[in-house]
């Protein structure tokens, strides 16, 4: 057991004008199972990079002292490396890795060792995550930095990763998944608004303590405000008396003040001075009360209540699918992302099910109905067709995001605008979306966000001031508004998409994995928003706590091969 000591750490990226950390100090134990909590953009990933790279890569003030080596998940893999079998890739990433140790870890992760001998590019996102975690934890005498391992994973894969990490120790886990944090950690490192906090316990125990502490600070703040009010009244009253008394020093009415003698002026001056001294003492007490009050609210999380004005459509049924079959052109399957791939990789012929009209079938004989006021959560493993259904609904509604989609049976291949990702084709069955239905869509991908917020708002037809105001409510610092979106963290990029969706008047809100990278506090804001305004929604989200709270109905989907 050893310690990691951070002393007076101050860091700012080159060319930036705001400090990520300023005068930060704390001590960590290398035996801890440490959860790292904080809002988007507060510097969680940056701190991991400082631990990993040290002064060799990043210039910072202060010191980071540790007697252990660090390793980081996820590993950086180039396009050339993706073509290698996973075992060869691991040898390039960590030349000292031992295969037998990795195999032991794979068994705990319920992953077939055969995946090590397939090209890394053919592994699904879940398989890649598990394989890299196996490589990471196969090492000895390392303190491991695990950065958001469950993003894009379905609920089954999340459970495997959760059960696996529960058996480990000696790591920092950055995650916004409340279930994962509760299951896997025994200490928390929290980046509060103004301070750094290290505490024993999991997320729920920390949050319970924080709520009690915030409640105490609020009551203390109210008490101080009342005391300050009383002191201000006393100071103003004494100041008024002193001023009134001072005016009587020179000149007086001999009839009204017939008993005034020549020494009265000195007496009045001394009395006025005493009153003024009382005013100064009262002002000093006010300053002391204000100074004591200032520290009370600096770390309190008081999320602003978001607002939403969903439109109401005249028809009750928004989406209707009967025996719907959706496929992708066989020759274009490699363009599809690994996030939608099944365990067999990028939709190999064996894993993608039946061929139908020259297409690989992603969804077959699917029946579905979405009515006004429902909030439906699509649930299922990666590759079961959730995102394909969403894309088909967007295309049927004529959404701008899907302009140009092929509606014919086996027609020319169409692609998502700005990408080489093939769009789905309806190969048979019925998908009905009423004309005039307005949809607000959040894509799970943020890679296309570039340029300034003003340019983004104009491109979406949004008021720039309203977008910035909503981002402030989602805890964006004003200093971020002057940056290009390429400089944002993934969580900040996702907040831009969510803010744009909330500002878009719509009958139906379709959000595809909206919470990837989103911090816990913003998740709570969105939960309260949805439960208050109850918009009609079609959701894909693997955060179990969020789904249970906001969904009015859950639709379970399974993979094509499981249907037969």
Overall description:
Strand 11 and strand 12 form a beta hairpin. The protein has helices at residues 44-53, 79-82, 86-93, 99-108, 125-137, 155-166, 178-184, 203-246, 264-294, 386-396, 453-460, 464-473, 490-503, 520-533, 544-550, and strands spanning 3-11, 21-29, 33-38, 61-66, 69-73, 142-147, 171-174, 187-191, 196-200, 317-329, 355-356, 359-371, 375-379, 425-432, 439-442, 508-512, 536-540, 553-556. The strands form 4 sheets. It has a 6-stranded mixed sheet with strand order 5-6-7-3-8-9, sandwiched between helices. It is an alpha/beta fold and 564 residues long. Helix 12 (464-473) packs across helix 13 (490-503).
Number of helices: 15
Spatial ordering of strands, largest sheet: 5-6-7-3-8-9
Q: How many strand elements? A: 18
- The best one-word shape is globular
* Class from secondary-structure proportions: alpha/beta
Instruction: Assess the beta-strand content as a share of residues.
Output: 15-25%
Mean pLDDT: 81
Radius of gyration: 31 Å
Low-confidence stretches: 331-357, 403-420
Helix content: 25-40%
Q: Summarize the main sheet.
A: 6 strands, mixed
Oligomeric assembly: single chain
Kindly report how far apart the N and C termini lie. 53 Å
